[in-house]
Design brief:
globular
Length: 141
Amino acid sequence: MEDTYENSYVEVLEILKHIPKDEYEKIPKQIIFFYEINKNKDYEYSYDVKNPKTMRKTDAIIINLYKDYVASDEERKRVEEILKLNTQKLELEKINNFDSNVIFKNNEEIDEEKNTHTDMIVAENEKWYTKIFKKIKNLFK
């Protein structure tokens, strides 16, 4: 399975078939039409509600659709906070991985350096996208 937007559009359209009708209607028809026109017609995807397996691009599209059109104001703020924390965490990882002082230290010093940088962010045990998928899954019930 190649992680392309065309394949992701197929997955998104299939997932949207499983959400409540009132939430589906909140998504602009132009967006759904865009996905229909640009999807990979040769790619087949079967959505499993209990164990969804999707590509990263599909996850990003679903999260943005949820945030922009389906979520309440409170849920939207929460999603934006999670995305912001995730971005900060990635930036800290980049600093740890590409800091010229860290690159030339021995392994023990690198481990200590990483621990001090990652301690600055208090992250929840669950990944942000897992929480969003659970929230979306709860909407389907």
